[in-house]
Amino acid sequence: MKNSTFVYINLSLFYNSDSWNFLVREGITRFFESVGSTSTYDAKFVLMFSFERGDNIRITTKIKGKLVDRFLFDFDFFFQEFMIRNPSEKKSVHVHLQSVFLEFPVNSVRYNLYEYVVKYRKADLHAIFSHMHAVTNIIVEQAKQTTGKISSRSFRFGIAAGYLRA
Length: 166
Hints:
single chain, alpha+beta, four-stranded antiparallel β-sheet, about 45% helix, globular
């Protein structure tokens, strides 16, 4: 990997879905605003919601190859501290018959559990990432408009409404 090339980093934050709006507003947005203000990293990121192996928000971001290790250190440090200060409620563990693996625990950070980047041409991948980043901005704006704890269903409904308004 060349140091000047960009790589896509796939991150998962396992957090109770009833607190996803709080995680987006107080955690994810603040982290990317802080690293973006230092101009160390490209502050663009994509959010995806998932229930695979537990409630989690998937984050994909594009980082210069030479900065990956530093970014992962900063990300891990920020969110480990965030989850200690703001733990989400634990849910009962669901055993899925389709999988032999248990769900990941809430309030944990995991890396490379999914693959956002599939085999696209560079131009297509850039366009897809840009579109998904625009959708992520709608998610962030919806999270900023909410306070306190709301259900994940209400949060997702607000996102869908915001997307339709855009």
